[in-house]
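Figure S4 source data
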Amino acid sequence: MATALATALVVRNVDMSLYCSRTYSWDEVIKIVDAAVREREGLLRKEYEMVVQEKLAEQFQFFTQFNQDYIHRQLRESQFNYMS
């Protein structure tokens, strides 16, 4: 794991040195930043969707448990003989 991280840093440093020696036009900067923003936005959307799905599943579980408890209490407290 540490070796992969070190390799990634070396590759990133090499790439950064190439980028540092070049001057970018305004249009190139806009394209680079736009691509980075779109990539990050996609990752954030995926993470958000996962959190929302987890919360909805948890909420549904609580609702189901509450509903089962409520029905069980209603049937237990019922005065109707045909329900027993």
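Figure S5 source data
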Amino acid sequence: MYKSGGSNSKLQGFSDSDFASDTEMRRSTTGYAFCLSNGIVTWSSQRQKLVTLSTTEAEYVAAAAAAKEAIWLRKLLNDLGCLPTTSTVLRVNNQSAIRLIKNAEFHKRTKHIDIKHHYVRETVESGEISVEYVPTYQQLADIFTKTLPKTQFQHLCNGLGIGSSTHSNGGSVEKYSYRASHSFVLRTGAHCLRSQLFPV
């Protein structure tokens, strides 16, 4: 169940990646989440389509995917008459990846990376996105990249605005716990976005 959003109405994103968790193809998993009014409105957990050579590169690829989602959300908000007046903050918990995004001079470390993943640099240079560091224990996207201990899982669920509650639906009672499935998040995401933008 989604909790009250609170007063923070700015769109903010979290981007994360594990490293080579796929034991067969050695590919990493990208995870990102975007929140509005402290409630999650969109998320993704997807295996990367290439083999990365380091954790820095895996995080860089994940940030590029999150940047594309951020730009799409900004355009959606604009269509709804709610264009963000400041850059959208994308929080990454890898300092090397952040330096790679902000410094285009690291040719030796990036020349082998597909051009499409450098899109994140363009969005930062244009001022549409700003990348900031976040400690791993506060990285909300971590929940989409790997299994976590129960306490950390619950902590991140709270950060995403997903809590434990009992909900009545037409006489039947449904209980959504911290183990709420990703499909539940996906089904309610669109409704959550509408409710954050146009509260009753």
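The domain at 12-197 is CATH 3.30.420.10 (Nucleotidyltransferase; domain 5). Helices lie at 55-79, 95-102, 107-110, 119-125, 150-159, 182-197.
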